[in-house]
Design brief:
single chain, alpha/beta, seven-stranded mixed sheet, 9 strands, elongated
C-alpha cells in the first residue's frame, strides 16, 4: 500500500475558478483535456508509490490539477508546459508550495529532460493526446537502465490497451513489444471520458510502467526493426513480412519459430530471441 500524502495542501481556489480567471479553455490543437476531480487526481498521484521528497517530471500540466496532487503527495515537481497561458496559474501554484515546483515553458518533444534531475524522477502526466505515443517511445528507447524511475501516464484507452496487450490479442503489436520486453506495463486505472473538461470522444486509462533488467545481447534498434517489419504487414506470414530484414529468415529457423506464423502470435520473448539471434 502506498504511503499517505504528507504535505498539507494549502487553501487553493477550485480549478474551475483558476481556469476561468486565466482564460484557460482547453486547446484542441495542443491535445488538451483537463482533469478537475481532486479525488481522481489524488488516486493517480498514488500510483507511482511513495512520492515524499521524490522528483517527478510532469508533461503538459495545464492549469495544474495533477500538479496539485503530486505536490500534496510530497513530490518535488518539474513541469514542462508549452501553453504559455498556463504559466501564471502554475506560478501561483508554485507560490503555494514554496521550493517544490519548477516550471519550464517549452515543447516536451524538443527538451532533453534527463539532465534536469539529480536522481531518477518518476514521470507522471496526463499527456496531451497528440504527443503521448511519441514521448512514450522516446522514453522506452532510452539507454537502459533508463534515466527515469517509473512512468504513470494517461492515454486514450485504445493506446493504453496496445501498450499492455497480451500476445495474440487484438491490440497486440509493436507498441506492446517495445513496452514489455524490458519493463513491466500494467493498466493501472480506467478513466471515464466524463472526468475531463471538455470530455473527449474516447475513454482513457492510466498506464504504469516500471523498468526491469534488459535481456542480454539484445539491441533496441534490432528489436525495433523487427517489430516494424513484422507488424507493418501483420496479416502476412513472417516469411513474407520479415523478408526485408537481413538475416531474419535464418534467425526464425535458428530460434525455431514457424515462418508461416503471423506477427500477432509471436510473443515478446520470441521477438527478443529473434533480435538476439540477429545480433
Amino acid at each position: 500500500m502506498s504511503a499517505p500524502a504528507t504535505a498539507t495542501p494549502p487553501d487553493l481556489p477550485p480549478l474551475r475558478e483558476v481556469i476561468a480567471r486565466y482564460g484557460l479553455n482547453a486547446s484542441k490543437a495542443l491535445g488538451q483535456n483537463f482533469l478537475l476531480d481532486a479525488q481522481l487526481l489524488a488516486r493517480i498521484a498514488r500510483i507511482p508509490g511513495d512520492l515524499r521528497d521524490a522528483e517527478v517530471l510532469e508533461i503538459g500540466p495545464g492549469p495544474g490539477g495533477l500538479t496539485r496532487a503530486l505536490l500534496a503527495a510530497g513530490a518535488r515537481v518539474t513541469a514542462i508546459e508549452r501553453d504559455r497561458r498556463c504559466i501564471p496559474a502554475l506560478a501561483e501554484l508554485g507560490e503555494a508550495f514554496p521550493g517544490k515546483l519548477r516550471v519550464i515553458e517549452g515543447d516536451a518533444l524538443e527538451i532533453d529532460a534527463a539532465p534536469l534531475f539529480d536522481a531518477k524522477p518518476h514521470i507522471a502526466s496526463n499527456l496531451p493526446y497528440n504527443i503521448g505515443t511519441a514521448l512514450l517511445v522516446r522514453w522506452l528507447s532510452a539507454e537502459w537502465a533508463p534515466w527515469w524511475e517509473s512512468l504513470t501516464l494517461m492515454f486514450q484507452r485504445e493506446v493504453a490497451d496496445r501498450i499492455v496487450a497480451p500476445t495474440d490479442g487484438e491490440a497486440y503489436g509493436r507498441l506492446a513489444v517495445l513496452a514489455q520486453w524490458r519493463s513491466r506495463a500494467v493498466l493501472a486505472m480506467p478513466v471515464h471520458r466524463s472526468a475531463f473538461t471538455p470530455p473527449p470522444k474516447v475513454m482513457s486509462a492510466v498506464v504504469h510502467i516500471v523498468p526491469c533488467e534488459a535481456p542480454e545481447d539484445v539491441r533496441f534498434a534490432t528489436l525495433e526493426r523487427l517489430t516494424a517489419a513484422a507488424f507493418g504487414q501483420r496479416r502476412k506470414m513472417l516469411r513474407q513480412s520479415l523478408k526485408s530484414v537481413n538475416g531474419a529468415l535464418a534467425a526464425l529457423e535458428q530460434v525455431g519459430i514457424d515462418p508461416t506464423r503471423r506477427a500477432e502470435t509471436v510473443s515478446v520473448a520470441e521477438f527478443v530471441a529473434l533480435a538476439r539471434a540477429l545480433g
